[in-house]
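Annotated sample (chain length 388).
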Amino acid sequence: MTPYDLTTRAARAGEEARPAGSTPLVEPIYQSTVYAFPDLETLDHAMSGEEHASFYYRNGTPNAATLERALAGLEGTGAALVAASGMAAISAALLGVLKTGEHVVADARVYGVTYALLAEELPRLGIEVSFVDAGDPAEVEAAFRDTTRVLHVESLTNPLMTVPDVPALAEIAHARGALLSVDNTFASPAVFRPAEHGADLVTHSVSKYLGGHSAALGGVVCGRADLIAQARTRLLRLGGTISAFDAWMTLQGLKTLGLRMRAHSGNAQAVADVLVNHPRVRAVYHPGLSDHPQFHRAMELFPDGFGGMLAAEIEDAPGFVRALAGRIPLAPSLADVTTTLSWPWGTSHRPLPEGERRRLGITPELLRLSVGIEDIGDLLGDLEAALA
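Output written by the structure step:
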């Protein structure tokens, strides 16, 4: 046989059969954008969608499928869909079940970009949205219409850490033939699983606690298989596919979720207990404090802790941020293994009108702490030095 030309050999490099006899301990990264099939029947079966099969990157990769199985298992749902970002996941979840002329009820305290999606983008599609105080069941119920299809809340709100009564909200939604959608990003399934309390759709930004290291971007929606199938159709048409590498990186972080969340929760509680007694701190928002408005509900729904998030109003907030420079970074995200500081007024809730921000209690003096897993003595030392 005539040897192949160098051009042919280079093009086909690495396609020879892999040696058998061992299995990688960590799943490989499947970076291929397209897959080959041995015959028309196999290709037709893959394209039918009857079971997960990789054939084109936008439709999903083996790494994404592995992550979906893991997250569905952790949230206790029938299925899951991973997406390029948390907002892509929420968009797919909502657009999968909504159509023109229908209506959404949403907590006014949702994340700023979620608020913008609900207040600006859905109405452009003919979907109406009513914002309510999800802590007031009577107000929530009064907002429902015959066309209401979804009630959307967060399990722990960003940034003021209010705790909605998810079981009661599920009853309200289901009695009216609607779905309950819960963004569980601030909690993670290690401390709260909304589906166990009646939620139909559970979303996350996996870039936060699930990945845990500020190294991978993505989102997920978990729920019944039929709801996830509808969301998947919308996501594929809009092109919000997670990369194989981001899915793989998230899975590596996911392996330590339980250990990390115990450390995050314990450290955040300790920080809240110290800050609430400091004379420079005007208010602390953390569900583990006995004066929190939903303290008893939080203790019932979150027996394993509340994660690492808290917010505080601090005298001379700009000076406090400067004093922490080099110790705790100012970064507009959350849930890293190291502690970070954020300014909701100018970052997460910037899309909201100024008046709405102030009405919700989000002021220029409010700072949000994402408490990491560092030694608590070192962490408290840094905070106390900055406060001094």
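Annotation: The chain has a mean pLDDT of 94.
Annotation: The first strand starts at residue 79 and ends at 83.
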